[in-house]
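Q&A log
Question type: sequence-to-structure
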Amino acid sequence: MTQVVRLKVKKLVEQANLPRYAHVGDYGDLAADLYASEQVIVQPGATVAVPTGIAIEFPSTHGALVEDRSGLALKGLTTLAGVIDPGYRGEIRIVVTNLGATAFEVKAGDRIAQLRIVQRIEAEFEEVTELGEARRGAGGFGSTGV
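Response status: OK
Response body:
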């Protein structure tokens, strides 16, 4: 059964769209679509913040991650800096970079990213001189083969 978290969303501009899931239910989407509230041209190699025209009130127990839309990523538009903390109440702006060779036009109302709601877990960090053994060890990128 899916856990439902109620989030308050404030439209900062009339033409803004609230986040929404394209597919819901037992096998619904992991993240909700986020929409651009105005037109933005992203030049090749440029990084810009695309406004959504919304602000969200998260409970202290949750926040969100902003993720790529796979179709846009294939076209070279990728998201960056996508953590939204529970206490943030400002406009959600999507930081994107155009990795493509041509300018990318984002139109008002376009789905620009995905919002993945996450439960906040606070860790305590303890300094130690040794770490326990694990099968992977210190192997990093590519350590399990290509």
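Response note: The beta strands are 8-11, 32-35, 40-42, 47-57, 62-67, 77-80, 83-84, 91-98, 104-106, 111-119.
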